[in-house]
Amino acid sequence: MKKNECVIGTQLKLNIHIDPLGSLHASDYDFECKFFVFQKKAITITKAEMVEIDNDNYIALVDTTSLGIGNLHITLIAQIPDSDFEGVLRREIVCIPTNIDIVNCI
């Protein structure tokens, strides 16, 4: 197995690091991560389901059983308070590369 491969069925502990947005840290707003190889087979893990390490780092436990074979992708969807519009949460979407390939064990 190569360095960045995992066998399908592995439960990955992934550190989700989010750089501060001005004075806002990830602990200041709600977000979720969608983990997928193919869009139809995705796992969504909310911030509440992750373990907070510090204001900008969270650990997600991702069960690869239902994701399929291929390169793992993450889409982070954040609901960020907008300083220009009082009381409005602005959705921001970021794609995060992982360089992790999910493979079969043969």
How does this structure look, described?
This protein has strands at 5-7, 11-17, 30-36, 42-46, 51-54, 57-63, 70-81, 89-103. It starts with a strand and ends with a strand. Strand 5 (51-54) and strand 6 (57-63) form a beta hairpin. With 106 residues, it is an all-beta fold. A five-stranded mixed sheet has the order 1-8-7-3-4, with no helix packed on it. Strands 2-6-5 form a three-stranded antiparallel sheet, with no helix packed on it. It is built from no helices and eight strands. The protein has a single domain, classed as Immunoglobulin-like. The chain is elongated and about 55 Å long. The protein is 0% helix and 57% strand. The model has no long low-confidence stretch (mean pLDDT 92).
Key phrases:
mainly beta, five-stranded mixed beta sheet, Immunoglobulin-like, 106 residues
List how many beta strands DSSP finds: 8
**Strand order across the largest sheet:** 1-8-7-3-4
Order of helices and strands: EEEEEEEE
Number of helices: 0
How much strand content do the residues show?
A: over 45%
CATH class: Mainly Beta
Query: Would you tell me which CATH topology applies?
Result: Immunoglobulin-like
